[in-house]
Design goal:
It is a multi-pass membrane protein. The longest helix has 39 residues. By secondary structure, this protein is α+β, with helices and mostly antiparallel strands. The chain has 44 helices and 40 strands. It is elongated. A hairpin with a 3-residue loop joins strand 22 and strand 23.
Length: 1273
């Protein structure tokens, strides 16, 4: 970096930290910009500078910056001659905005805008040398103001843990207060002359008063009992999280070979939140789709041309270069060549273009618009300058260039600009009447770089796809300057279009336009491309009286029909239009446009109005359909995530038709669903629609009606969500951006949320980045639900930051989303394993680890507390001080860390195959609030056992305090280790090694310490204590019996069992075969993804024999759909599936079956019939009825099992008699579930009829129609 020194009057090298505001800086190609610099000079003849903003937003495409007006005409910039004054806005973090003005010595002002500013962190590209003045430096630059440092998020588990830590503090204070009061009473009971011999007076010969002794004792026991507050828990959790993140990074399944990228964890403190997500908010383009646009369809002049070969190539070549290698349509290519030949003949014979047929004219202009109506930068890898600079230009082109510079970029007055315009128009009047310039040099025929060498730097994949499509038809973009675009055409060579103005795309106008001077006709043409919803309204009105008007209306009608078909196919549509301006129209518009460009205040609004004045009365050329293919595995991922109980909302900026069809393709919406589409033109209409929809949905799916219609059904399950929000309905909600803006107003947001949470799927179309974040915040705050947002572009940053968990995808739209996210993944399909596997593991590990820490510390502190009753609450300890220090630090720390890092309650393949297991994290089944108190009670009980068994063992003996306290410490360590062993689900070599190492380390330290400390702690002495104890059989007896009695409740009471933990006990071969069977059966069910597969109940042969007299019926689909079913789903009324053993199975004493076939027989595989009702949101208990080979002894525990958190949702629906179970052999298996030998279809029809009878006269009557999709307009 070179800094201009006024003393030496030249540029010298300088460090970045020395740069100050007002310094002049000179930069060369490939140098990084050190500060926010106002561009005053460039080696480019047009005053352009190309920069790469990858360090800011991750985008690698080049962007253009322009030298400030009035400095363009300078041959060489001299900093010593700079006398202007710059006034600009205060430093801010808005990267897309910069306003100010520069006051010259003459008093004239020029506006300063973002196009004139080089931002810190960007890199100079394709420009030899630039110079400018520093506007913002250091921490005031926009880049550093955007860097707020790492965002801190607290996980839900951590927040609950902090609350429990406060309870620990309260318990500690109660224990200390109790001890202080006890000590005060103990001191008070002795008279002044009856003090015990060990109670020594103070230096003044007086004894402490009971009150003062209590205060001192209170402070003493706080130090003694301080272990009650698990400070080490926070350190241990951080260590475990770092190790968990490391293993997540090492997962090869989360690596994408195509992009050579892997998962990144950018937030270490919320890994457990991955296992508790309830709502997923996803972008569509680039997140669900590839964001690699392929030109698939186009229609020109009302004729449609298919490019289906490109779609087939995408399948075979896996998206590598298909966006560049486009196969043209033969008929359209033939017409393009025919058009080029006619143009060549007419140019050689100097004939006007009016001789060309209207269809060929539209085809020619259509591809010209595709080529030049964009901001694509053309670069050649072997050239440092833009490849467009290699194109030759004539003298007339120089005239055009100078005109453009005076008319658009210079700071001269409007009058002088119009004077230049009159000269130009006079020159145009001298042209021949045939429409061609007499100077053939205006065509600027030349040869640009070879097509194979060209590289297009586009701001969006859509633009690149259109430019590559035009190149496939031999209409190639070969060069671009600020005022010129060079296009190479067949038979015509290179045509240079003079670019007069570029009206960029914005989200309000939803289009972009370029104003160019046509090199063949010298006409001023406006080429516009944009959304069909706005272009169609800007077309020139056509009269039905004249044939031309009828023809144009016919073309518009055909084009609109083709656009609708493109949207149905899920294609991204664009309309291409053109307008020819007369000299008077352009002169009038130019005057107002220059005033808008020169304005300093309200410049954006004035430019917006100026664009509206010229973008009207357009002539429709055609339309395009670009395909953005779904990423691999997206439908399967969405299906599995929904089975896991996750609600998925898609928030996209695409048009409604395209978004809906992509939603069907990715199985977010199902064809058997009823779709509610909300399109409102005003807030009042939106309020009425929301109210009507809520009344309809509530009346159709109210719990009261469902219960009454169910009649005497005895089988039912508690839903995952509260009864007031029945999410189980098969409804989908589609809402556009305007209606969403109304629905998010404070007066309507509650109604919108009430309707949305009753729908299985929500699709928000035409939504802005702000609306996306507002939707996420609404669900997060109102429903108190765990939210996850995933996106890939800058427009997704706001919702990623608002969500509890933000996930970014490194795609085609840059790295903004990744840099703002907590986790970054290469593909959407990786979200499945990240949540269902790693999220489940992280939550399960940390939840159990936190509870174990609370238990361990409370249990150890309670031992010291019980001793206070026998030492006058003096704060003494029967445990050696070194044992107190090392107990948490060395003896018991390693095993819990190993378990927290490596424990797997369910294998990964089971979690993927049975996604319903994820609901345990959503329901916080591993760490509920009452579990803290259960652990505290368990710790108190175990401490009583570990204290009083040694107490009564050594009662009335002559052992010293350490000879009695050391066995208590040993027993406590054994009990804590065995407790951890019970809680550990997966045992590895490290688990065994850590436990054995901890025990051996304790004995080693005890033996060495007791043997080397003969004079410690007088009058008591730990010398040779452990050596004597190890020779005493009573020591071994107490160390064995005490942990067994302490852990007896955990031996006798079943831990809650899940299907995954049951399957994990199978041999790897049997488990693989069983899971393969599950996958095969699911893949053969074409309709299985529209509801939770295998959501059925099973009955084994033994159970059917027990219950033939009184079979248990299953709960039917009792809720009638809100609207009529889609015709496509009629063939799926009934379906036969193979019931898979997806229930928790308690095996008897016999060993597991040795083969998959015997396992299949034992678990009761049989064919069942069921309806296609939507039931996938039911809890795990409904999806997988628990089963058991229960003998007489085990049956007494059924009530306890049903009261555990996992089984509490099953309810009281399983009525099994004790006598029937006692008659079953132990080697059989009984599946506790409901029989499905009930005609589901008949029950559904009966319930539907009941519902229809009950619904008469309700507000839902207006909802009845024959369409599966009802649109409220």
């Amino acid at each position: 970096m070179s800094f201009f020194s006024r003393n030496e009057k030249k540029y010298i090298s300088r460090y970045w930290k020395e740069v100050k505001v007002g310094d002049f800086v000179q930069l060369r190609c490939n140098e990084i910009i050190p500060a926010d610099i106002l561009l005053l000079s460039s080696s480019d003849p047009d005053g352009l500078c190309h920069i790469e903003t990858a360090n800011l937003d991750g985008e690698t495409n080049l962007k253009q910056r322009q030298v400030v007006r009035r400095f363009l005409e300078l041959v060489k910039f001299d900093p010593l001659k700079f006398t202007s004054v710059i006034e600009c806005e205060k430093p801010n973090n808005d990267l897309s905005r910069f306003q100010g003005y520069i006051v010259h010595k003459s008093g004239k002002k020029d506006g300063l805008f973002k196009e004139n500013l080089l931002l810190r962190g960007c890199t100079i590209r394709n420009t030899e040398e630039v110079a400018g003045i520093v506007i913002y430096a250091g921490h005031e630059t926009k880049a550093l103001l955007n860097n707020n440092g790492p965002r801190y998020k607290r996980s839900k588990l951590e927040r609950q843990m902090n609350a429990d830590v406060l309870w620990c503090v309260l318990i500690l204070l109660i224990m200390c207060l109790f001890s202080a009061i006890g000590h005060g009473l103990w001191v008070w009971q002795y008279a002044e002359k009856k003090k015990p011999i060990f109670d020594l007076p103070g230096p003044d010969g007086k004894y402490l008063s009971p009150v003062l002794a209590s205060v001192y004792l209170f402070l003493t026991v706080i130090i003694v009992f301080q272990v009650m507050i698990p400070i080490s828990l926070y350190v241990s959790i951080e260590i475990v999280k770092i190790c968990q993140v490391y293993f997540i990074h090492q997962d090869k399944d989360l690596y994408d070979e195509e992009t050579d990228s892997q998962l990144q964890c950018r937030a270490l403190n919320i890994t457990e939140d991955l296992g508790q997500v309830q709502f997923i908010f996803s972008d569509k383009t680039g997140t669900l789709t590839e964001n690699k646009m392929v030109f698939r369809r186009c229609t020109v002049s009302g004729i449609e041309y298919s490019h289906d070969d490109n779609g087939e190539l995408m399948i075979f070549f896996f998206y590598l270069t298909i966006e560049k290698d486009i196969t043209p349509d033969p008929s359209l290519l033939e017409k393009v060549n025919e058009c080029a030949k006619h143009l060549e003949v007419m140019r050689s014979h100097e004939q006007p273009l009016s001789h060309l047929s209207p269809e060929l004219c539209d085809i020619f202009d259509f591809f010209i618009a595709l080529t030049i109506c964009n901001t694509v930068v053309v670069t050649a890898p072997n050239h440092r300058l833009t490849s467009g600079s290699n194109s030759s230009s004539s003298s007339s082109l120089a005239t055009s260039k100078s005109m453009h510079r005076f008319g658009v970029l210079s700071s001269t007055s409007t009058d002088s600009t119009l004077l230049k315009l009159e000269e130009k128009l006079t020159y145009s009047a001298q042209m021949n009447n045939n429409g061609y310039s007499s100077q053939q040099g205006r065509t600027a025929v030349g040869s640009g770089p070879g097509e194979g060498e060209l590289r297009y730097e586009a701001e969006s994949p859509d633009e690149a796809a259109l430019v590559y499509a035009a190149r496939a038809y031999n209409c190639s973009l070969v060069g671009r300057l600020s005022d010129q675009v060079s296009v190479e055409l067949p038979h015509l060579g290179t045509l240079s279009f003079e670019v007069l103005h570029t009206l960029g795309f914005d989200s309000v106008r939803k289009r972009m336009s370029v104003v160019v001077r046509h090199p063949l006709t010298d006409e001023i043409n406006v080429y516009t491309k944009g959304a069909d919803s706005v272009i169609m309204d800007l077309l020139l009105p056509c009269s039905s009286d004249d044939p031309w008007g009828k023809h144009q209306k016919k073309i518009q009608s055909k084009t609109q029909n083709y656009l609708n078909l493109y949207a149905v196919d899920g294609l991204r549509t664009l309309c291409i239009a053109k307008r020819v301006l007369s000299k008077e129209e352009y002169a009038c518009w130019l005057k107002s446009h220059l005033e808008a460009e020169s304005s300093i205040e309200n410049r954006e609004e004035l430019l917006f109005q100026s664009a509206l004045r010229i973008e009207k009365n357009l002539h429709l050329l055609g339309a395009t359909g670009i395909e953005d293919r779904l990423q691999d595995g997206v439908p399967e991922t969405i299906a599995n995530l929904r089975k896991a109980g996750l609600q998925i909302w898609v928030l996209t900026g695409d048009k409604q038709e395209t978004a809906v069809n992509i939603a069907y393709a990715c199985k977010l919406l199902d064809h058997d669903e009823e779709i509610i589409t909300l399109n409102a033109e005003s807030p009042e209409t939106c309020a009425v629609l929301l109210e009507q929809c809520l009344q309809c949905v509530e009346s159709k799916f109210s719990n009261t009606t469902i219960d009454e219609a169910a009649g005497n059904m005895t089988v039912g399950f508690t839903p995952l969500y509260p009864p007031s929000s029945p999410v189980l309905s098969s409804l989908g909600l589609v809402i556009d951006g305007r209606t969403l803006a109304y629905a998010l107003e404070p007066t309507l947001e509650d109604k919108f949320l009430a309707l949305a949470k009753r729908c299985r799927s929500v699709l928000c179309c035409r939504s802005t980045p702000l609306q996306k974040s507002m939707v996420v915040k609404l669900v997060r705050d109102k429903l108190k639900a765990m939210t996850l947002a995933i996106g890939d572009g800058a427009n997704d940053v706001s919702m990623i930051q608002v969500a509890d968990v933000g996930v970014g995808i490194s795609g085609q739209e840059g790295m903004q989303a990744v840099m703002a996210s907590d986790f970054a993944i290469p593909r959407f399909r990786h979200l499945e394993k990240l949540l269902l596997v790693h999220g489940h593991w992280c939550y399960s590990r940390l939840a159990n680890m936190v509870l174990y820490f609370f238990y361990k510390n409370a249990m150890f502190v309670a031992l010291l507390f019980w001793y206070q009753f026998y030492c006058g609450f003096s704060g003494s300890s029967m445990v050696d001080q070194w044992y107190l220090i090392f107990f948490n630090l060395l003896f018991s720390s390693l095993p819990q860390l190993i378990t927290g890092v490596l424990d797997k309650d369910v294998p990964a393949e089971v979690l993927i195959t049975v996604p319903q297991l994820y609901k345990s994290g959503q329901n916080m089944e591993e760490y509920k609030p009452h579990m803290f108190w259960m652990n505290m009670i368990d710790a108190m009980y175990q401490s009583l056992v570990c204290f009083f068994i040694p107490y009564f063992t050594y009662y009335d003996s002559d052992v010293d305090i350490f000879s009695w306290g050391t066995p208590i410490t040993t027993i406590a360590l054994f009990t804590i280790m065995l407790h951890l062993a019970i809680e550990t689900k997966t045992w590895t070599f490290l688990h065994w090694s850590s436990c054995i190492f901890s025990i051996l380390l304790f004995f080693f330290v005890a033996l060495v310490y007791n043997a080397s400390c003969p004079v410690c702690h007088p009058p008591s002495n730990p010398y040779w204590t452990m050596e004597r104890l190890m020779g005493d059989p009573m020591f071994y007896f107490t160390c064995i019996i005490s942990p067994v009695v302490a852990l007896l409740p955990r031996y006798s009471i079943f831990s809650h069992l899940q299907l995954g933990r049951q399957l994990s006990k199978l041999s790897p071969q049997n488990r693989t075969q069983l899971l393969t069977k599950l996958n095969v059966r699911r893949q053969t069910q074409s309709f299985a993804d529209s509801f939770s597969p295998s959501l059925v109940s099973y009955a084994s042969d033994c159970y059917k024999a027990c219950n033939q007299s009184a079979p248990l019926p299953t709960s039917p689909q009792t809720s009638e759909s809100l609207f009529q079913k889609h015709p496509k789903a009629e063939h799926t009324t009934d379906q036969t599936v193979a019931a898979s053993p997806e229930g928790a199975v308690l095996y008897g004493e016999n060993k597991l079956p040795s083969s998959a076939s015997s396992l299949e027989r034992s678990t009761g595989f049989h064919e069942v019939r069921h309806g296609t009702s939507e039931m996938e949101s039911l809890p795990v208990g409904a999806a997988f009825p628990w089963s058991s080979a229960v003998d007489q002894a085990d049956f007494s525990l059924l009530k306890w099992i049903s009261s555990t958190p996992l089984f509490s949702r099953i309810g009281t629906v399983l009525q099994v008699s004790s006598s029937s179970l006692q008659n079953e052999p132990q080697d059989s298996m009984c599946v506790l579930g409901s029989s499905l030998h009930v005609d589901f279809k008949g029950l559904k029809e009966q319930s539907s009829n009941n519902l229809q009878d009950k619904m008469k006269g309700t507000p839902a009557d207006y909802c009845k129609n024959d369409n599966s999709e009802t649109t409220f307009l």
